[in-house]
Amino acid sequence: MGKFDQRAEEFGMLVGAHESARRVEDLPLDWVMPDPGNPRTHFDEVELAELAASIEVRGVLQPIIVRPRNADGKHVIRMGERRYRASLAAGKTTIPAIVSEAGEGGDVLADQIVENDQRASLSSRELALGVERMLAQGKTQAEIAKALGRSKQFVSLYAAYGEMEPYLREAIDKAPIRVLYDLHRAARKHPVEVRGFVAGLGERGVTLAEGSRFIASLKGAVDAGSAPAPTAPAAVPAAPSPAKPTGRAGHARPIVAPSPVKVMVGARSARLILPERVRVVFDDGDEGEVASRDLSFE
Fold first, then answer.
1. By C-alpha distance, which of 206, 179, 175, 209 is closest to 298?
2. CATH number at residue 61
3. What is the domain extent for residue 272?
4. SS3 254
5. Whole-number Å distance between alpha carbons of 153 and 270
6. Is 186 part of any domain?
7. Could you give the number of structural domains in the chain?
8. What's the mean pLDDT in 71-100?
9. Is residue 178 situated within a structural domain?
10. What does the alpha-carbon distance between residue 60 and residue 32 come to, in Å, rounded to a whole number?
């Protein structure tokens, strides 16, 4: 189980244990309002329609959590805006809710990020804006990583969003955060090339592999201009020296990637050989160790 999944599970157990002792009330929906600071800003219409259809038949099975009534007489939602929106769509007039004063500031925001992403993954933009707000509240990247149950590298990728040029910030829905981070760094030396690359993304966007190849081409262009001899492409790992097959007990053999993956090392062709477990960085910036047999190659 990853750190985020563990954090989400602990969070769910904590909320369940802490809130179960509180009284569930049927609040009029016009007494309830969304939190303007909710990290989720996009709600999928198809998913909401499906949830509304379920609520119309079975009702809201899990109460939302709201704050006490404010000066305007409204209960601001802490958790459960999707259920609130779906209840409105289903024509309900009330919603089961638990009124809770628990949590303030950055702790509430961290809980909302975890709760939202656990139910339906937040977009890269929503995660980036959430991390940006937590930084603005004075939290360090290490504190944010701990609060979200994510790696420090994951947080550092999203933390860089606030430092990016506007054209890169606008491209966050078209590129994995890892690619956007690398483009942000590459733009310091290659601003014209990076801006041109981003301008040509189109609606389809770019994959992690495509972005990595572009970054590698920029590095290769620098190397070609400064080095007298050709060098290996930056994005292609050098293959280790071929292992000597012995077949004897006690001598582990390396794993050859399925559907032999051909790589180039300088001018020489080779096969990519992997150990039994490898470390990977996902498109969303998270990282972890996986078995080589679970990999597939484009």
1. 209
2. 3.90.1530.10
3. 236-240+251-294
4. coil
5. 31
6. yes
7. 3
8. 91
9. yes
10. 15
Amino acid at 275: P
Cα(202)–Cα(99) distance, rounded to whole angstroms? 46
Contacts 24+ apart (CB under 8 A), 20-23: 22/98, 22/99, 22/100, 23/98
- Based on the fold, state whether residues 46 and 108 are members of the same structural domain: yes
How many other β-carbons are positioned within 10 Å of the β-carbon of residue 209? 12
Q: Is 113 exposed, middle or buried (0-12, 13-18, 19+ CB in 10 A)?
A: buried
Calculate mean pLDDT across residues 10-15: 45
Is residue 181 over pLDDT 80? yes
CA distance 260 to 264: 13
Report the 10 Å Cβ neighbour count for 236: 16
pLDDT digits (tens, 9 = 90+) for 164-176: 999 999 999 888 8
Which of 103, 119, 135 is the last residue in one of the domains? 119
- Quick check: is 157 in a domain? no
Instruction: Tell me: pLDDT of 198 over 90.
Output: yes
Burial class (CB in 10 A: 0-12, 13-18, 19+), 33: middle
CA 297 to chain centre: 22
Residues 6+ apart with CB under 8 A from 69: 31, 75
Q: How far, in Å, CA of 220 to CA of 252, rounded?
A: 36
Mean pLDDT of 92-115: 71
Contact (Cβ atoms closer than 8 angstroms) between residue 112 and residue 41: no
Q: Is residue 138 part of a domain?
A: no
